Amino acid sequence: MAKSKVGGSRAYIRGRIGADVYSIGKDGKGTRQQVVRSLAEQVSNPRTQSQMFGRMVMSTVMQAVSALQPIIDHSFDGLPKGQPSISEFIRQNYALVKADATDHPATGNQFALNKYQQKGLLQGAFLVSKGSAVVPAALKTDSNLGFYVDGATQATTVGQFKALWGLNDNEYITLIGQTVNKQGALEGAKFVRISFKFTVADSTVITSEVLNAAATFEGSVSGSWVVDDEGAYISADMNISNAAVIVSRMENGAYVHNTAYMKPGSMSYNPADEVLPTYPVGSQLFLNGGDI
Predict the structure, then answer these.
(1) Is the pLDDT of residue 12 over 90?
(2) List of E strands, the chain
(3) Which of 6, 149, 162, 189 suits 64 as a labelling partner, its CA being 20 to 30 A distant?
């Protein structure tokens, strides 16, 4: 029990009452005492809503950089591999995310926005490569087959498949997708690079075994070719509903790429009016100096 200066006694209390937080401490002699701390009503470094909006956009872009770094560090034509390409990704996508959140603060968003301290790549139409290469018309993606070669069937020959594939032995595609956990939430990005080098005659009819023997898969997920009555497609552990296909062609001793955006997925987004970030002062969250 604590003794009151005006007489009597009262129990020590813990918790918050109004703007005051109560706890139990000790004085210099080790005697228990009631401690009262008032929460700040103004912060020493207030941010404007415009500043916090900019930080939210940058946080969203930097989470994408973290997830997509193995791709975006070399997929911008005319820029050296490494930081110059990553910086271009940041510049381009910051403008895209900012414009999307400004134009569609509540609905119709193309990008999900990261909440305060939220980690991981969320869905969004990120520009992941930019260049002059053209994706062969037969290389396609959809939510059913994922990545597939349109027109390739169980009767297609290797020669016909090569023509549909449209790339030489030293050229490849990169398929970027996202992983989803059991609750349906996105966990991050995965990718696989695919190239071919056939050693069988062009007259050979394609099968799963023929394509997989000629294919090389590299990246963060494994994949395999399937040839059945639906066609020729890749089976890979990634969510194709939010994907991008990047072609890497060799021209004049250097690779060039197509311009590619990750497709918006079908899951719900975090719109701007729900995720405008705040920052902590003690156990409270403040924006513009006000307790929210």
Answers:
(1) no
(2) 2-3, 9-10, 15-17, 20-26, 32-38, 127-129, 139-142, 146-149, 172-180, 186-196, 215-219, 223-228, 231-236, 239-251, 254-257, 260-261, 279-281, 284-287, 290-291
(3) 149
